[in-house]
Input
Amino acid sequence: MTLDAGALDTLFREARTHNGWLDQPVTDDDLRAIFDLMKYGPTSANCSPARFVFVRSAEAKEKLKPALSAGNTAKTMAAPVTAIVAYDPKFYDHLPKLFPHADARAWFVSSEALAQETAFRNGTLQGGYFILAARALGIDTGPMSGFDKAKVDEAFFAESGWKSNFLVNLGYGDATSLFARSPRFEFAEACAIV
Amino acid sequence: MTLDAGALDTLFREARTHNGWLDQPVTDDDLRAIFDLMKYGPTSANCSPARFVFVRSAEAKEKLKPALSAGNTAKTMAAPVTAIVAYDPKFYDHLPKLFPHADARAWFVSSEALAQETAFRNGTLQGGYFILAARALGIDTGPMSGFDKAKVDEAFFAESGWKSNFLVNLGYGDATSLFARSPRFEFAEACAIV
Output
């Protein structure tokens, strides 16, 4: 029940954030397959607040463009798909379905601060599962925080009320455009066993 | 470069949040191995704000106990290890090492709100990578938000200034104590392709 070395390389050790993309599409079936893995990752009370808008058409890319930071524009416009990883601030309205064991909706309706923190934490966790699910299926990712969230929310979420969290370009990476990998912490710099 | 069905089951489809634990230890080498995968997951400007305290000794478990919610106490005291997934609010002081390409420290020193949001988002992403890295190595997880963060911070982070985010029990799960899996969203309930 452990993964082999090649799988660990694909997920973690050899996986890279990509900035250039091969001319190879990401299909509806690919996006569904990523979601159908991601959705099983754990969230608090199974609250599953993450929402995903997959920006693929030229029209939708143009709608996204004004919100992108300068350094993220060219690679995002060129990516086969850009996922807007968002969350639903009213995720708790779905808890009677998602967590039928208890009245979990009441925990969040009574505290706006708890609901907001829970949506952001768990929506972000699901974003992490999403990145690794894509990699597991052989699809490269380019996650980004450099964009104007208010503009994205106005352009894409005026009706739903969802809130953008971060973006993930999806496709098949062009290894020739990779930067060198940046250094990581040693265990003792970031961890303690007590 | 795609994972096989067994690996996808181990990471996502058959993996479960565990509440009961077999009498089998989690070693220092196991904890280092999880970290040595997790650390490669992407973060914004490689900021790597997550910090991990692995609570394993009886003394440290007793220090954690008063912070646990009633429903999380027994299973956490019984778990071979409980990881406190935390983040360093001053993560930016390490950016000259972690992101040598630019003066990224300046981006965060000048905005407390951006620094806090970046620490929470990216520390949480790393928490997601951590859960899947443990599963990849055959170690079961039990993530939890139900605890008093102020108490944990006072008991464990008075000196470092780190902030607790969530907890993850680690060990080898006792399948007889599993709950039934809760329902998940369908693709169209949480996603759109535009």
Observations:
- The mean pLDDT of chain A is 97.
